[in-house]
Design goal:
With about 375 residues, the chain is of the alpha/beta class. It has helices spanning about 30-35, 45-50, 55-65, 80-95, 105-120, 195-215, 225-245, 250-265, 275-285, 290-295, 295-305, 310-320, 325-335, 355-360, 375-385, and strands at about 20, 40-45, 70, 100-105, 145-150, 160-165, 170-175, 185. The longest helix has 23 residues, at about 225-245.
């Protein structure tokens, strides 16, 4: 019996109750807030979204619907606890009752963490999933509407938020609870059209990594819904990421990539693996974009898990470019869109590999990897890709 045939009694799926995916979906924001009883919205975003005029546009949409708004635009990548605490104070002082996150995964994760902080109180570290924090979160939480402007994390569909604890040496930790899944996801490909090619490529690989690791994972042995999302997400990346990078105004390619990210968010609920276990410490140490941080690690993942996941990798390679070789298909894609093929290409120092491996073995994602690994295996693998 193969792992795909292991059928348990049940599986769970947590998705936003409402997803609207279309060009101009952002114009539904006011209506969605009002139908969920919101009156005063905290808009959660970053300075780049403000500079591009997207935050001002959203403010206008919400005010036209008769809503009050307060803007918090200090979101940082890999949101640290300190930013969450500051934004939660803004929420409470303005007497907000609803959250609208617009931006990349960091903005959406920040809004999720604000929802926990203002409804549950206490230290956010208490809600670390690895410390049993899921059992401490009690509904209700303020309603959250997520509007992604990048096509990578899939945070608009997930029930978790990845945060950074600077006091624990920039340790990444996850808060997970079904109530953290946004109440509404507005997926608007027009909002992604201003992403430059490098960011388009990096976010696209982020989405692809979720699909690849999710599909091959046996951490959750049986979830045909997530498996279907993963495979079709890989297909969408294969047919559209190159076009989205080379022609940013190609609305069809942008829509595909938006949905690939969304499907990746569903796929990764099955589990992740070595690519994310390596990527998180790379982000913490070198302060690189998350999509960039998982690019070379995804090649590592494809090589070291091949024997265990031969059938799954063959299926995904066929979806990606019609071949039977997943690692080869990934390398071709990377070459076409300018993504790195070696760790040195993202600034990793060879002498940092062994200290990085120590951090990698503290990552929960490593324990979801299909193949059980030892430190010596990962050190050799990273040196092979150096």
């Amino acid at each position: 019996m193969t792992k795909k045939e292991k059928v348990p009694s049940s599986f769970r799926i947590y998705l936003p109750p409402v997803t609207i995916a279309s060009p101009n979906a952002v114009y539904q924001a006011g209506k969605m807030v009002k139908t969920r009883g919101g009156n005063h919205v905290l808009i959660v975003t970053d300075s780049g979204i403000v500079e591009r005029g997207i935050a001002l546009k959203l403010e206008g949409i919400l005010k036209d619907a008769g809503l009050e708004t307060t803007l918090f635009s200090e979101v940082e990548s890999d949101p640290p606890i300190e930013v969450i605490e500051k934004s939660a104070r803004v929420y409470e002082e303005a007497r907000c009752d609803c959250l609208v996150a617009i931006g990349g995964g960091s903005s959406i994760d920040t809004a999720k963490a604000i929802a926990v902080k203002v409804s549950q109180g206490g230290d956010l570290r208490e809600y670390d999933a690895m410390r049993g924090g899921i059992g401490l979160i009690k509904p209700p939480l303020p309603p959250l509407i997520a509007i992604p402007t990048t096509s990578g994390t899939g945070s608009e569909v997930t029930s978790g938020a990845v945060l950074t604890d600077k006091k624990r040496n920039n340790l990444k930790f996850v808060i997970i609870h079904p109530e953290l899944a946004p109440k509404v996801a507005l997926v608007d490909p027009k909002l992604a059209m201003s992403m430059p090619p490098k960011l388009t490529a990096a976010t696209g690989i982020d989405a692809l990594s979720h699909c690849v690791e999710g599909y091959a994972s046996d951490f959750v042995p049986y979830n045909p819904f997530a498996d279907a999302a993963a495979l079709y997400g890989v297909k969408m990346v294969g047919r559209s990421l190159r076009r989205a990078c080379s022609r940013g105004d190609d609305i069809d390619a942008r829509f595909d990539m938006c949905m690939a990210a969304y499907l990746g968010g569903i796929a990764v609920t099955k589990g992740s693996g070595l690519a994310h276990a390596i990527g998180h410490p790379l982000t913490a140490r070198y302060h690189i974009h998350h999509g960039l941080s998982v690019a070379v690690p995804l090649l590592c993942y494809a090589r070291i898990n091949l024997q265990k996941c031969e059938e799954e990798f063959r299926e995904m390679a066929r979806m990606l470019d019609g071949s039977d070789d997943l690692e080869g298909a990934l390398k071709k894609l990377y070459s076409d869109i300018g993504m790195p093929l070696r760790f040195r290409d993202v600034g990793v120092k060879e002498e940092d590999i062994e200290p990085l491996v120590e951090d990698i073995f503290g990552e929960p994602a490593l324990h979801m990897n299909p193949l059980r690994l030892e430190k010596k295996h990962v050190i050799k693998l990273m040196k092979d890709f150096y």
